[in-house]
Design goal:
two-stranded antiparallel ribbon; 4 helices; mainly alpha; Arc Repressor Mutant, subunit A; 54% helix
C-alpha cells in the first residue's frame, strides 16, 4: 500500500512486455545487443525473422547483423532491470 501508483504502473507495464517473450526470444535480444551471431548459439534464422516481424530487432543490411530496435532495447532493459541490473543511459 505504501507504493506510489505510478511506480506500480511502470512495473506492471514492464512485466507485461517481458512475459510475452520466451527464453529464446530473450537470448535473441541479448545476442542482437551484444553483436553475437545467432547461429553461433543455435538460434535459427526463422526465429530471428520472427523477432524482426515483432519489431524487436532489425537486419542491418550494411553489416549483415541483427540489431535492436528502440522497442527491443526497451524490453531488454526491462528484463535486465527485473533481474537487478542497472542500465547506464545511452
Amino acid at each position: 500500500m505504501g507504493r506510489h501508483p505510478s511506480a506500480r504502473g511502470q512495473h506492471w507495464g514492464m512485466a507485461k512486455a517481458t512475459t510475452k517473450l520466451n527464453a529464446q526470444d530473450r537470448v535473441i535480444l541479448f545476442c542482437a545487443a551484444a553483436g553475437i551471431e545467432h547461429a553461433a548459439v543455435g538460434i535459427l534464422a526463422r526465429a530471428m525473422q520472427s523477432m524482426a516481424i515483432r519489431s524487436y530487432i532489425e537486419h542491418d543490411h550494411e553489416s549483415g547483423a541483427y540489431v535492436l530496435t528502440a522497442s527491443g532495447r526497451a524490453v531488454l532493459e526491462g528484463i535486465l532491470q527485473q533481474a537487478g541490473f542497472n542500465i547506464a543511459p545511452r
